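Q: What structure does this chain adopt?
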Amino acid sequence: MKACSNWAYCRLRDSLRAAVIYARCQFKDIGMKRRLAVILSAALCVGGCISGVPVSVTNHSATALHQVVVSGKGFSESVGSIAAGATETIRVRPREETTVKVAFEADERRYSAATETAIENNDLYIVVVNVAADHTISIETPLR
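A:
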């Protein structure tokens, strides 16, 4: 490297070189950060785009259902109360393949039932729960 006779010029030249090297390093980091951001966004979208499995609970009895809870492996969702003749729909997001359990109180008694077939967190399943006049529970898990 030649000796520089003009101190200000040499200082400016060295600063510009340093700035170019710094910018190149930052650009590489930005490229890597962008790739990481795209991969992370895609992963979140795939995981978050599934809105959950819809569970509808219909009360065909003459009394209100209280403390209605839908649960399975990785989730437990409170529906609250369901009036006589009413239907409530929620979405559950199981973490793995699971059966679905429904429990509630009516006429000061606790009732519960579970599915025999398992569901997964995807857009293929729906869960239909019907509570009969005598508070028996039927749960169906048809495919859409």
